[in-house]
Design goal:
102 residues, 90% helix
Length: 102
């Protein structure tokens, strides 16, 4: 093979090696950026999940509190119904309450 062709081949091999190295470096840079973005998104998701769990827990506590309040209120109403004047009032007022189906 002539010397000029060998020199061209060597130069092409060198250029290919440089391009491969640059390409590999670009891919590594992109991978680092993507990893950082994925970690950021996962962190945000974790924060949102934590907030959602906290809201769900608060809602459950409020529901339990409301259930307890309603049970106490119902007990008080049942106690009041035992008194004759209250029972008479409730019976008379229930006759005057218009039906919602009308």
């Amino acid at each position: 093979m002539p010397l000029e062709i060998k020199d061209n081949q060597a130069a092409l091999r060198d250029k290919i090696a440089v391009l491969r190295a640059e390409f590999f470096e670009e891919i590594q840079t992109m991978q680092v950026i993507l990893d950082a973005k994925v970690n950021s998104i996962q962190g945000e998701y974790g924060n949102m999940q934590g907030k959602f769990d906290g809201l769900k827990e608060n809602m459950n506590r409020m529901e339990l509190g409301l259930g307890n309040y309603m049970a106490k209120l119902e007990n008080k109403i049942n106690i009041l119904k035992c008194y004759d004047p209250v029972r008479a009032y409730l019976e008379s007022s229930s006759k005057h309450i218009p039906s919602s189906s009308k």
